[in-house]
Amino acid sequence: MNSTIESNPLLDRLPKHLRQFIKPQDYSDYTPINQAVWRYVMRKNVAYLSKVAHNSYLDGLQKTGIEIDNIPSMYGMNRILSEIGWAAVAVDGFIPPNAFMEFQAYNVLVIASDIRQLEHIEYTPAPDIIHEGAGHAPIIANPEYAEYLRRFGEIGCKAISSHKDYEMYEAIRYLSIVKEAEGTPEATIAAAEKAVEDLQNNMGELSEMAQIRNLHWWTVEYGLIGTVEDPKIYGAGLLSSIGESAHCMTPAVKKIPYDISAANQSFDITKLQPQLYVTPTFAYLNLVLEEFANKMALRTGGLSGIKKLIDSKALGTVELSTGLQISGVFSSVIEHDGKPIYLQTTGKTALAYREKELVGHGTLTHPEGFGSPIGKLEGINLAIEDMSPKDLNAYDILESKTVTLDFEGGIKVTGEIITGSRNLQGEITLIRFKNCTVTHGERVLFQPEWGVYDMAVGKKITSAFSGPADVNSFDLITHLPSSKTIKAKQSAERDDLEVLYQTVRNIRVTKDTQTLLAPIFEKLQNNHPNDWLLAVEITELLQERNEPQLAQEIMVYLEQLRSKRPEVAHLIAGGLDLIFDKTKA
Protein backbone atom coordinates (compact mmCIF):
# COMPACT_ATOMS: atom_id res chain seq x y z
CA MET A 1 0.00 0.00 0.00
CA ASN A 2 1.05 3.57 -0.61
CA SER A 3 2.05 5.01 2.76
CA THR A 4 3.36 8.32 1.46
CA ILE A 5 2.24 11.12 3.75
CA GLU A 6 -0.50 13.13 2.08
CA SER A 7 -1.08 16.56 3.57
CA ASN A 8 -4.55 17.86 4.31
CA PRO A 9 -4.96 21.60 4.99
CA LEU A 10 -7.53 20.94 7.71
CA LEU A 11 -4.88 19.29 9.87
CA ASP A 12 -2.72 22.41 9.69
CA ARG A 13 -5.58 24.37 11.29
CA LEU A 14 -5.80 22.17 14.38
CA PRO A 15 -4.83 23.93 17.64
CA LYS A 16 -1.98 22.54 19.73
CA HIS A 17 -4.25 21.20 22.48
CA LEU A 18 -5.89 18.85 19.95
CA ARG A 19 -2.61 17.85 18.32
CA GLN A 20 -1.48 16.32 21.63
CA PHE A 21 -3.92 13.43 21.07
CA ILE A 22 -2.66 12.58 17.59
CA LYS A 23 -0.31 9.65 17.21
CA PRO A 24 1.34 8.45 14.02
CA GLN A 25 -0.24 5.51 12.26
CA ASP A 26 2.63 3.07 11.80
CA TYR A 27 1.23 0.90 9.04
CA SER A 28 3.93 -1.70 9.60
CA ASP A 29 2.36 -2.43 13.01
CA TYR A 30 -0.54 -4.18 11.28
CA THR A 31 0.11 -7.90 11.12
CA PRO A 32 -1.17 -10.40 8.53
CA ILE A 33 -3.77 -11.55 11.08
CA ASN A 34 -4.90 -7.94 11.53
CA GLN A 35 -5.32 -7.64 7.77
CA ALA A 36 -7.32 -10.88 7.67
CA VAL A 37 -9.61 -9.62 10.46
CA TRP A 38 -10.21 -6.36 8.55
CA ARG A 39 -10.93 -8.24 5.33
CA TYR A 40 -13.35 -10.69 6.97
CA VAL A 41 -15.34 -7.95 8.70
CA MET A 42 -15.46 -5.74 5.62
CA ARG A 43 -16.55 -8.56 3.32
CA LYS A 44 -19.27 -9.60 5.76
CA ASN A 45 -20.36 -6.01 6.27
CA VAL A 46 -20.54 -5.07 2.61
CA ALA A 47 -22.45 -8.25 1.80
CA TYR A 48 -24.98 -7.69 4.60
CA LEU A 49 -25.06 -3.90 4.84
CA SER A 50 -25.83 -3.48 1.15
CA LYS A 51 -29.32 -4.68 2.17
CA VAL A 52 -29.83 -2.84 5.47
CA ALA A 53 -27.55 0.24 5.56
CA HIS A 54 -28.44 3.73 4.37
CA ASN A 55 -27.54 4.07 0.71
CA SER A 56 -24.79 6.56 1.61
CA TYR A 57 -22.73 3.73 3.12
CA LEU A 58 -21.64 1.87 0.00
CA ASP A 59 -21.21 5.12 -1.95
CA GLY A 60 -19.13 6.47 0.93
CA LEU A 61 -16.79 3.48 0.98
CA GLN A 62 -15.65 4.42 -2.51
CA LYS A 63 -15.56 8.17 -1.89
CA THR A 64 -13.45 7.84 1.26
CA GLY A 65 -10.98 5.34 -0.15
CA ILE A 66 -11.90 2.47 2.18
CA GLU A 67 -10.75 -0.82 0.65
CA ILE A 68 -12.21 -4.18 1.53
CA ASP A 69 -8.95 -6.12 1.30
CA ASN A 70 -6.60 -3.71 3.09
CA ILE A 71 -6.65 -1.78 6.35
CA PRO A 72 -6.79 1.87 5.27
CA SER A 73 -3.73 4.07 5.38
CA MET A 74 -4.49 7.32 7.19
CA TYR A 75 -2.38 9.22 4.69
CA GLY A 76 -4.27 7.88 1.72
CA MET A 77 -7.57 8.55 3.48
CA ASN A 78 -6.56 12.15 4.12
CA ARG A 79 -5.85 12.73 0.46
CA ILE A 80 -9.29 11.44 -0.50
CA LEU A 81 -11.17 12.95 2.46
CA SER A 82 -9.81 16.39 1.57
CA GLU A 83 -11.95 16.23 -1.57
CA ILE A 84 -15.11 16.18 0.58
CA GLY A 85 -13.80 18.76 3.07
CA TRP A 86 -12.69 16.40 5.84
CA ALA A 87 -9.51 14.95 7.31
CA ALA A 88 -8.59 12.04 9.59
CA VAL A 89 -6.13 11.59 12.47
CA ALA A 90 -5.02 8.53 14.42
CA VAL A 91 -5.37 8.44 18.22
CA ASP A 92 -4.83 5.92 21.01
CA GLY A 93 -8.25 4.51 21.93
CA PHE A 94 -10.81 6.70 23.70
CA ILE A 95 -9.96 10.38 24.08
CA PRO A 96 -11.90 12.85 26.30
CA PRO A 97 -15.39 13.61 24.90
CA ASN A 98 -14.79 17.37 24.60
CA ALA A 99 -11.66 16.78 22.54
CA PHE A 100 -13.35 14.15 20.38
CA MET A 101 -16.15 16.56 19.55
CA GLU A 102 -13.85 19.51 18.99
CA PHE A 103 -12.01 17.49 16.33
CA GLN A 104 -15.38 17.06 14.58
CA ALA A 105 -15.94 20.82 14.76
CA TYR A 106 -12.74 21.16 12.69
CA ASN A 107 -14.07 18.58 10.18
CA VAL A 108 -11.52 16.06 11.40
CA LEU A 109 -12.45 12.42 11.92
CA VAL A 110 -10.75 10.79 14.92
CA ILE A 111 -9.68 7.22 14.19
CA ALA A 112 -8.34 4.82 16.79
CA SER A 113 -5.69 3.15 14.66
CA ASP A 114 -5.47 -0.11 16.61
CA ILE A 115 -7.52 -3.04 15.36
CA ARG A 116 -9.51 -5.59 17.33
CA GLN A 117 -8.10 -9.03 18.03
CA LEU A 118 -9.37 -12.05 16.09
CA GLU A 119 -11.03 -13.24 19.31
CA HIS A 120 -13.20 -10.08 19.29
CA ILE A 121 -13.86 -9.97 15.57
CA GLU A 122 -17.61 -9.34 15.96
CA TYR A 123 -17.47 -6.54 18.51
CA THR A 124 -15.06 -4.74 20.76
CA PRO A 125 -15.86 -2.02 23.33
CA ALA A 126 -12.55 -0.38 22.40
CA PRO A 127 -12.63 2.05 19.49
CA ASP A 128 -10.62 0.63 16.61
CA ILE A 129 -9.93 1.27 12.94
CA ILE A 130 -12.80 -1.00 11.89
CA HIS A 131 -15.25 1.02 13.98
CA GLU A 132 -13.89 4.41 12.98
CA GLY A 133 -12.62 3.81 9.45
CA ALA A 134 -15.31 1.44 8.22
CA GLY A 135 -18.08 2.88 10.39
CA HIS A 136 -17.74 6.66 10.61
CA ALA A 137 -15.80 7.51 7.46
CA PRO A 138 -18.19 6.24 4.75
CA ILE A 139 -21.24 8.09 6.05
CA ILE A 140 -19.52 11.50 6.17
CA ALA A 141 -19.44 11.39 2.38
CA ASN A 142 -23.12 12.34 2.71
CA PRO A 143 -22.98 16.19 2.88
CA GLU A 144 -26.08 16.55 5.06
CA TYR A 145 -24.81 14.05 7.60
CA ALA A 146 -21.29 15.51 7.50
CA GLU A 147 -22.70 18.92 8.41
CA TYR A 148 -24.59 17.34 11.33
CA LEU A 149 -21.35 15.77 12.55
CA ARG A 150 -19.46 19.07 12.29
CA ARG A 151 -22.23 21.02 13.98
CA PHE A 152 -22.52 18.39 16.70
CA GLY A 153 -18.82 18.75 17.38
CA GLU A 154 -19.06 22.53 17.48
CA ILE A 155 -21.86 22.48 20.05
CA GLY A 156 -20.78 19.34 21.89
CA CYS A 157 -17.29 20.56 22.73
CA LYS A 158 -18.88 23.48 24.61
CA ALA A 159 -21.00 21.17 26.79
CA ILE A 160 -20.20 21.45 30.48
CA SER A 161 -19.14 18.26 32.25
CA SER A 162 -19.67 17.32 35.87
CA HIS A 163 -16.64 16.29 37.90
CA LYS A 164 -17.90 12.68 37.62
CA ASP A 165 -17.83 12.66 33.82
CA TYR A 166 -14.06 12.49 33.66
CA GLU A 167 -14.06 9.60 36.14
CA MET A 168 -16.52 7.83 33.84
CA TYR A 169 -14.35 8.52 30.79
CA GLU A 170 -11.31 7.02 32.52
CA ALA A 171 -13.30 4.01 33.75
CA ILE A 172 -14.74 3.28 30.29
CA ARG A 173 -11.35 3.77 28.65
CA TYR A 174 -9.76 1.30 31.09
CA LEU A 175 -12.58 -1.23 30.65
CA SER A 176 -12.31 -1.09 26.86
CA ILE A 177 -8.56 -1.69 27.07
CA VAL A 178 -8.66 -4.68 29.42
CA LYS A 179 -11.58 -6.30 27.57
CA GLU A 180 -9.76 -6.04 24.24
CA ALA A 181 -6.36 -7.07 25.61
CA GLU A 182 -5.35 -10.68 25.13
CA GLY A 183 -5.35 -12.90 28.23
CA THR A 184 -6.78 -10.38 30.70
CA PRO A 185 -7.88 -12.27 33.85
CA GLU A 186 -11.66 -12.48 34.24
CA ALA A 187 -11.35 -10.93 37.70
CA THR A 188 -9.72 -7.81 36.20
CA ILE A 189 -12.49 -7.44 33.62
CA ALA A 190 -15.18 -8.01 36.25
CA ALA A 191 -13.66 -5.34 38.50
CA ALA A 192 -13.46 -2.87 35.60
CA GLU A 193 -17.08 -3.59 34.63
CA LYS A 194 -18.21 -3.09 38.22
CA ALA A 195 -16.37 0.26 38.39
CA VAL A 196 -18.25 1.47 35.29
CA GLU A 197 -21.56 0.12 36.58
CA ASP A 198 -21.09 1.78 39.98
CA LEU A 199 -20.37 5.11 38.31
CA GLN A 200 -23.34 4.75 35.98
CA ASN A 201 -25.60 4.19 38.97
CA ASN A 202 -24.23 7.16 40.89
CA MET A 203 -23.86 9.93 38.30
CA GLY A 204 -26.57 12.06 39.89
CA GLU A 205 -28.26 14.59 37.60
CA LEU A 206 -26.92 14.18 34.07
CA SER A 207 -24.53 16.94 33.02
CA GLU A 208 -24.73 18.60 29.62
CA MET A 209 -21.81 16.48 28.48
CA ALA A 210 -23.48 13.27 29.65
CA GLN A 211 -26.67 14.23 27.82
CA ILE A 212 -24.97 15.20 24.60
CA ARG A 213 -22.90 12.00 24.73
CA ASN A 214 -26.21 10.16 24.90
CA LEU A 215 -27.41 11.99 21.78
CA HIS A 216 -24.11 11.16 20.08
CA TRP A 217 -24.45 7.49 21.02
CA TRP A 218 -28.04 7.14 19.75
CA THR A 219 -27.29 8.93 16.46
CA VAL A 220 -23.65 8.94 15.35
CA GLU A 221 -22.83 5.58 16.95
CA TYR A 222 -26.07 3.59 17.01
CA GLY A 223 -28.48 5.51 14.82
CA LEU A 224 -31.13 4.14 12.46
CA ILE A 225 -32.83 6.17 9.72
CA GLY A 226 -36.13 5.83 7.91
CA THR A 227 -39.25 4.53 9.61
CA VAL A 228 -39.72 2.41 12.72
CA GLU A 229 -41.19 -0.28 10.47
CA ASP A 230 -38.39 -0.17 7.88
CA PRO A 231 -35.22 1.38 9.34
CA LYS A 232 -31.78 1.54 7.73
CA ILE A 233 -28.44 1.65 9.55
CA TYR A 234 -26.18 4.72 9.61
CA GLY A 235 -24.57 4.59 13.10
CA ALA A 236 -20.88 3.66 13.08
CA GLY A 237 -21.20 1.23 15.99
CA LEU A 238 -23.69 -0.82 13.99
CA LEU A 239 -21.90 -0.45 10.65
CA SER A 240 -18.70 -1.83 12.16
CA SER A 241 -20.19 -4.71 14.18
CA ILE A 242 -21.06 -7.79 12.15
CA GLY A 243 -22.90 -9.19 15.14
CA GLU A 244 -24.91 -6.18 16.25
CA SER A 245 -25.77 -4.97 12.73
CA ALA A 246 -27.73 -8.21 12.27
CA HIS A 247 -29.09 -8.30 15.83
CA CYS A 248 -30.40 -4.73 15.66
CA MET A 249 -32.75 -5.60 12.80
CA THR A 250 -34.53 -8.28 14.82
CA PRO A 251 -37.70 -7.69 16.88
CA ALA A 252 -35.58 -8.21 20.02
CA VAL A 253 -34.40 -4.60 19.66
CA LYS A 254 -37.09 -1.99 20.26
CA LYS A 255 -37.20 0.79 17.62
CA ILE A 256 -38.15 4.25 18.94
CA PRO A 257 -38.80 7.46 16.96
CA TYR A 258 -35.84 9.77 17.65
CA ASP A 259 -36.42 12.93 19.65
CA ILE A 260 -34.75 14.98 22.38
CA SER A 261 -35.74 12.46 25.07
CA ALA A 262 -32.79 10.35 23.85
CA ALA A 263 -30.56 12.82 25.74
CA ASN A 264 -31.70 11.20 28.99
CA GLN A 265 -31.38 7.58 27.81
CA SER A 266 -28.05 6.29 29.08
CA PHE A 267 -26.23 3.35 27.47
CA ASP A 268 -23.94 0.46 28.39
CA ILE A 269 -21.00 -0.01 26.03
CA THR A 270 -20.44 -3.59 27.20
CA LYS A 271 -23.83 -4.97 26.10
CA LEU A 272 -25.98 -5.22 22.97
CA GLN A 273 -28.35 -2.25 22.84
CA PRO A 274 -31.90 -3.15 23.92
CA GLN A 275 -33.42 -0.21 22.03
CA LEU A 276 -32.43 2.05 19.14
CA TYR A 277 -33.71 5.38 17.85
CA VAL A 278 -34.90 6.00 14.29
CA THR A 279 -34.60 9.44 12.70
CA PRO A 280 -36.74 10.12 9.63
CA THR A 281 -33.96 12.10 7.89
CA PHE A 282 -30.46 13.44 8.50
CA ALA A 283 -31.94 16.97 8.49
CA TYR A 284 -34.12 16.02 11.48
CA LEU A 285 -30.96 15.22 13.48
CA ASN A 286 -29.99 18.88 13.24
CA LEU A 287 -33.43 20.00 14.45
CA VAL A 288 -33.08 17.91 17.62
CA LEU A 289 -29.51 19.11 18.10
CA GLU A 290 -30.65 22.73 17.94
CA GLU A 291 -33.48 21.97 20.36
CA PHE A 292 -30.95 20.56 22.81
CA ALA A 293 -28.47 23.42 22.26
CA ASN A 294 -31.20 25.93 23.13
CA LYS A 295 -31.29 24.40 26.62
CA MET A 296 -27.53 24.43 27.14
CA ALA A 297 -25.78 27.03 29.27
CA LEU A 298 -23.99 27.96 26.05
CA ARG A 299 -27.21 29.73 25.05
CA THR A 300 -29.03 30.29 28.34
CA GLY A 301 -26.19 31.56 30.54
CA GLY A 302 -27.58 32.91 33.82
CA LEU A 303 -27.20 31.59 37.33
CA SER A 304 -27.67 27.97 36.29
CA GLY A 305 -24.86 28.32 33.76
CA ILE A 306 -22.32 29.60 36.25
CA LYS A 307 -23.40 26.91 38.74
CA LYS A 308 -22.77 24.22 36.15
CA LEU A 309 -19.26 25.57 35.64
CA ILE A 310 -18.61 25.62 39.39
CA ASP A 311 -19.81 22.02 39.68
CA SER A 312 -17.56 20.93 36.81
CA LYS A 313 -14.43 22.09 38.68
CA ALA A 314 -12.85 22.51 35.26
CA LEU A 315 -11.77 25.31 32.98
CA GLY A 316 -14.78 27.13 31.56
CA THR A 317 -15.96 30.48 30.24
CA VAL A 318 -18.80 32.89 30.94
CA GLU A 319 -19.74 35.57 28.45
CA LEU A 320 -21.40 38.77 29.63
CA SER A 321 -23.96 40.86 27.79
CA THR A 322 -21.17 43.20 26.61
CA GLY A 323 -19.39 40.27 24.93
CA LEU A 324 -16.62 40.21 27.52
CA GLN A 325 -15.54 36.61 28.17
CA ILE A 326 -14.02 35.42 31.46
CA SER A 327 -12.18 32.09 31.33
CA GLY A 328 -10.94 30.17 34.35
CA VAL A 329 -11.98 27.64 36.96
CA PHE A 330 -15.08 29.12 38.60
CA SER A 331 -15.18 28.63 42.34
CA SER A 332 -18.17 30.61 43.66
CA VAL A 333 -21.11 32.82 42.81
CA ILE A 334 -23.13 35.20 44.97
CA GLU A 335 -26.79 35.28 43.99
CA HIS A 336 -29.74 37.55 44.70
CA ASP A 337 -33.36 37.03 43.63
CA GLY A 338 -32.32 34.09 41.45
CA LYS A 339 -29.67 36.06 39.58
CA PRO A 340 -25.87 36.01 39.83
CA ILE A 341 -24.53 39.27 41.28
CA TYR A 342 -20.85 38.35 41.77
CA LEU A 343 -18.72 35.63 40.25
CA GLN A 344 -15.27 34.40 41.24
CA THR A 345 -12.63 32.24 39.62
CA THR A 346 -9.63 30.69 41.31
CA GLY A 347 -6.18 30.33 39.76
CA LYS A 348 -5.18 31.44 36.28
CA THR A 349 -7.84 33.50 34.52
CA ALA A 350 -7.97 35.29 31.17
CA LEU A 351 -10.33 37.85 29.67
CA ALA A 352 -11.31 37.83 26.02
CA TYR A 353 -13.66 39.37 23.48
CA ARG A 354 -14.96 37.33 20.56
CA GLU A 355 -12.64 34.42 21.41
CA LYS A 356 -9.54 36.63 21.34
CA GLU A 357 -7.65 37.39 24.55
CA LEU A 358 -7.68 41.06 25.55
CA VAL A 359 -4.24 42.63 25.50
CA GLY A 360 -2.93 42.83 29.05
CA HIS A 361 -5.56 40.49 30.47
CA GLY A 362 -4.03 37.05 30.15
CA THR A 363 -3.13 34.63 32.92
CA LEU A 364 0.01 36.59 33.80
CA THR A 365 -2.20 39.56 34.75
CA HIS A 366 -4.75 37.38 36.56
CA PRO A 367 -2.72 34.46 37.97
CA GLU A 368 -4.71 34.02 41.20
CA GLY A 369 -8.28 34.42 40.08
CA PHE A 370 -10.76 37.07 39.03
CA GLY A 371 -13.93 38.39 40.67
CA SER A 372 -16.51 40.85 39.42
CA PRO A 373 -20.04 42.09 40.08
CA ILE A 374 -22.72 41.32 37.49
CA GLY A 375 -25.92 43.31 36.98
CA LYS A 376 -27.25 46.82 37.26
CA LEU A 377 -26.58 49.58 39.77
CA GLU A 378 -29.11 49.95 42.60
CA GLY A 379 -31.94 52.34 41.73
CA ILE A 380 -30.71 53.01 38.19
CA ASN A 381 -32.57 51.38 35.32
CA LEU A 382 -29.79 52.11 32.88
CA ALA A 383 -26.98 49.52 32.96
CA ILE A 384 -23.40 50.82 32.84
CA GLU A 385 -22.87 49.21 29.41
CA ASP A 386 -25.83 51.16 28.02
CA MET A 387 -24.72 54.54 29.37
CA SER A 388 -23.80 57.30 26.94
CA PRO A 389 -20.84 59.59 27.70
CA LYS A 390 -23.38 62.08 29.10
CA ASP A 391 -24.82 59.40 31.43
CA LEU A 392 -21.36 58.33 32.59
CA ASN A 393 -20.54 61.95 33.36
CA ALA A 394 -23.76 62.34 35.33
CA TYR A 395 -22.86 59.37 37.53
CA ASP A 396 -19.18 60.36 37.85
CA ILE A 397 -18.04 57.15 36.16
CA LEU A 398 -15.01 58.87 34.69
CA GLU A 399 -11.25 58.42 34.63
CA SER A 400 -9.40 59.79 37.69
CA LYS A 401 -12.64 59.99 39.66
CA THR A 402 -13.12 58.17 42.95
CA VAL A 403 -16.52 56.57 42.79
CA THR A 404 -18.76 54.22 44.76
CA LEU A 405 -20.87 51.84 42.67
CA ASP A 406 -23.73 50.18 44.56
CA PHE A 407 -25.00 47.15 42.62
CA GLU A 408 -28.34 45.44 43.05
CA GLY A 409 -28.00 42.69 45.63
CA GLY A 410 -25.58 44.60 47.84
CA ILE A 411 -22.23 44.45 46.01
CA LYS A 412 -20.34 47.71 46.58
CA VAL A 413 -17.27 48.81 44.58
CA THR A 414 -15.34 51.85 45.80
CA GLY A 415 -12.15 53.09 44.16
CA GLU A 416 -10.41 55.50 41.80
CA ILE A 417 -11.07 54.79 38.13
CA ILE A 418 -7.87 54.43 36.12
CA THR A 419 -9.39 53.74 32.71
CA GLY A 420 -12.11 51.86 30.87
CA SER A 421 -12.22 49.56 27.85
CA ARG A 422 -14.95 49.44 25.20
CA ASN A 423 -16.09 46.81 22.72
CA LEU A 424 -16.65 47.35 19.01
CA GLN A 425 -20.17 48.62 19.66
CA GLY A 426 -18.79 51.29 21.98
CA GLU A 427 -20.09 49.66 25.16
CA ILE A 428 -17.86 49.76 28.24
CA THR A 429 -16.69 46.21 28.94
CA LEU A 430 -14.07 46.71 31.66
CA ILE A 431 -13.28 49.37 34.27
CA ARG A 432 -9.90 49.41 36.00
CA PHE A 433 -9.59 50.79 39.58
CA LYS A 434 -6.84 51.56 42.03
CA ASN A 435 -7.23 51.88 45.80
CA CYS A 436 -10.31 49.71 45.37
CA THR A 437 -12.48 47.91 47.92
CA VAL A 438 -15.24 45.49 46.96
CA THR A 439 -17.70 44.25 49.59
CA HIS A 440 -20.91 42.31 49.96
CA GLY A 441 -22.37 43.37 53.28
CA GLU A 442 -19.68 42.64 55.85
CA ARG A 443 -17.75 40.36 53.49
CA VAL A 444 -14.66 41.81 51.80
CA LEU A 445 -14.24 40.55 48.24
CA PHE A 446 -11.31 42.77 47.23
CA GLN A 447 -9.10 45.21 49.11
CA PRO A 448 -6.64 47.92 48.02
CA GLU A 449 -3.44 46.11 49.03
CA TRP A 450 -4.23 43.35 46.51
CA GLY A 451 -3.37 45.77 43.70
CA VAL A 452 -5.31 46.97 40.68
CA TYR A 453 -8.96 45.85 40.44
CA ASP A 454 -10.41 45.05 37.01
CA MET A 455 -14.19 45.10 37.04
CA ALA A 456 -16.04 43.34 34.25
CA VAL A 457 -19.08 45.19 32.93
CA GLY A 458 -22.23 43.28 32.07
CA LYS A 459 -25.83 43.34 33.20
CA LYS A 460 -26.14 39.56 32.81
CA ILE A 461 -24.39 36.32 31.88
CA THR A 462 -25.52 35.42 28.37
CA SER A 463 -23.47 32.26 27.93
CA ALA A 464 -21.48 29.69 29.90
CA PHE A 465 -19.51 26.89 28.31
CA SER A 466 -16.68 24.42 28.75
CA GLY A 467 -13.12 25.41 27.90
CA PRO A 468 -11.43 28.78 27.36
CA ALA A 469 -12.67 31.54 25.07
CA ASP A 470 -9.21 31.81 23.50
CA VAL A 471 -7.43 28.44 23.37
CA ASN A 472 -4.08 30.26 23.35
CA SER A 473 -4.71 31.77 26.78
CA PHE A 474 -3.96 28.56 28.67
CA ASP A 475 -1.50 25.70 28.51
CA LEU A 476 -3.84 22.90 27.49
CA ILE A 477 -1.12 20.37 26.69
CA THR A 478 -1.89 18.35 29.77
CA HIS A 479 -3.45 15.11 28.57
CA LEU A 480 -1.99 12.17 30.44
CA PRO A 481 -4.34 9.18 30.14
CA SER A 482 -4.29 6.81 33.08
CA SER A 483 -4.07 3.80 30.75
CA LYS A 484 -2.67 2.88 27.36
CA THR A 485 -3.92 0.37 24.84
CA ILE A 486 -2.30 -3.04 25.13
CA LYS A 487 -0.76 -4.68 22.07
CA ALA A 488 -1.19 -8.38 21.27
CA LYS A 489 1.36 -10.59 23.02
CA GLN A 490 4.21 -11.89 20.92
CA SER A 491 5.21 -15.54 21.06
CA ALA A 492 6.90 -18.08 18.82
CA GLU A 493 3.53 -19.72 18.20
CA ARG A 494 1.94 -16.39 17.26
CA ASP A 495 4.85 -15.49 14.98
CA ASP A 496 4.56 -18.83 13.21
CA LEU A 497 0.82 -18.29 12.66
CA GLU A 498 1.47 -14.77 11.32
CA VAL A 499 3.87 -16.25 8.74
CA LEU A 500 1.15 -18.64 7.53
CA TYR A 501 -1.37 -15.77 7.24
CA GLN A 502 1.17 -13.68 5.32
CA THR A 503 1.88 -16.57 2.93
CA VAL A 504 -1.81 -16.98 2.14
CA ARG A 505 -2.23 -13.22 1.77
CA ASN A 506 0.68 -13.08 -0.69
CA ILE A 507 -0.80 -15.93 -2.73
CA ARG A 508 -4.15 -14.11 -2.98
CA VAL A 509 -2.69 -10.68 -3.75
CA THR A 510 -0.26 -11.92 -6.42
CA LYS A 511 -2.82 -14.40 -7.82
CA ASP A 512 -0.20 -17.12 -7.38
CA THR A 513 -1.56 -20.46 -8.65
CA GLN A 514 1.68 -22.43 -8.25
CA THR A 515 2.38 -22.43 -4.50
CA LEU A 516 0.84 -25.51 -2.89
CA LEU A 517 -1.78 -24.85 -0.20
CA ALA A 518 -1.71 -28.36 1.32
CA PRO A 519 1.53 -27.82 3.30
CA ILE A 520 0.16 -24.55 4.72
CA PHE A 521 -3.02 -26.29 5.85
CA GLU A 522 -1.02 -29.14 7.35
CA LYS A 523 1.03 -26.70 9.45
CA LEU A 524 -2.17 -24.95 10.52
CA GLN A 525 -3.74 -28.23 11.63
CA ASN A 526 -0.69 -29.42 13.52
CA ASN A 527 0.50 -26.18 15.14
CA HIS A 528 -2.60 -23.97 15.45
CA PRO A 529 -5.63 -26.25 15.95
CA ASN A 530 -7.87 -23.45 17.33
CA ASP A 531 -7.46 -20.98 14.46
CA TRP A 532 -10.44 -20.86 12.08
CA LEU A 533 -10.03 -17.77 9.90
CA LEU A 534 -6.97 -18.94 7.97
CA ALA A 535 -8.69 -22.21 7.10
CA VAL A 536 -11.58 -20.18 5.67
CA GLU A 537 -9.14 -18.07 3.62
CA ILE A 538 -7.43 -21.22 2.26
CA THR A 539 -10.86 -22.61 1.31
CA GLU A 540 -11.53 -19.43 -0.68
CA LEU A 541 -8.30 -19.87 -2.66
CA LEU A 542 -9.02 -23.56 -3.27
CA GLN A 543 -12.46 -22.69 -4.58
CA GLU A 544 -10.92 -20.21 -7.03
CA ARG A 545 -8.32 -22.78 -8.09
CA ASN A 546 -10.96 -25.49 -8.37
CA GLU A 547 -9.17 -27.94 -6.09
CA PRO A 548 -12.17 -29.78 -4.59
CA GLN A 549 -10.30 -32.59 -2.84
CA LEU A 550 -8.31 -30.41 -0.43
CA ALA A 551 -11.26 -28.05 -0.11
CA GLN A 552 -13.42 -30.95 1.08
CA GLU A 553 -10.73 -31.96 3.58
CA ILE A 554 -10.68 -28.44 5.02
CA MET A 555 -14.48 -28.36 5.16
CA VAL A 556 -14.41 -31.48 7.34
CA TYR A 557 -11.75 -29.81 9.52
CA LEU A 558 -13.87 -26.67 9.87
CA GLU A 559 -16.93 -28.74 10.76
CA GLN A 560 -14.95 -30.40 13.54
CA LEU A 561 -13.74 -26.98 14.69
CA ARG A 562 -17.34 -25.73 14.82
CA SER A 563 -18.20 -28.58 17.19
CA LYS A 564 -15.07 -28.03 19.27
CA ARG A 565 -15.49 -24.22 19.41
CA PRO A 566 -19.24 -23.47 19.24
CA GLU A 567 -18.58 -19.79 20.03
CA VAL A 568 -17.05 -19.32 16.55
CA ALA A 569 -19.34 -21.71 14.65
CA HIS A 570 -21.43 -18.87 13.20
CA LEU A 571 -18.28 -16.98 12.16
CA ILE A 572 -17.00 -19.99 10.26
CA ALA A 573 -20.41 -20.41 8.63
CA GLY A 574 -20.47 -16.73 7.72
CA GLY A 575 -17.06 -16.92 6.08
CA LEU A 576 -18.03 -19.98 4.06
CA ASP A 577 -21.28 -18.33 2.98
CA LEU A 578 -19.27 -15.48 1.47
CA ILE A 579 -17.19 -17.96 -0.53
CA PHE A 580 -19.99 -20.15 -1.81
CA ASP A 581 -22.48 -17.36 -2.41
CA LYS A 582 -19.80 -15.71 -4.55
CA THR A 583 -19.25 -18.98 -6.39
CA LYS A 584 -22.98 -19.37 -7.08
CA ALA A 585 -23.16 -15.78 -8.29
TrEMBL record:
Key word Repeat present: no
GO molecular function per UniProt: oxidoreductase activity
Membrane-spanning residues: none
Residue ranges of every copy of the Biopterin-dependent aromatic amino acid hydroxylase family profile domain listed in the record: 1-342
EC number: 1.14.16.-
Keywords tagged on the record: Iron, Metal-binding, Monooxygenase, Oxidoreductase
Cofactor dependency: Fe(2+)
Any Pfam family hit: Biopterin_H
Protein name: Aromatic amino acid hydroxylase
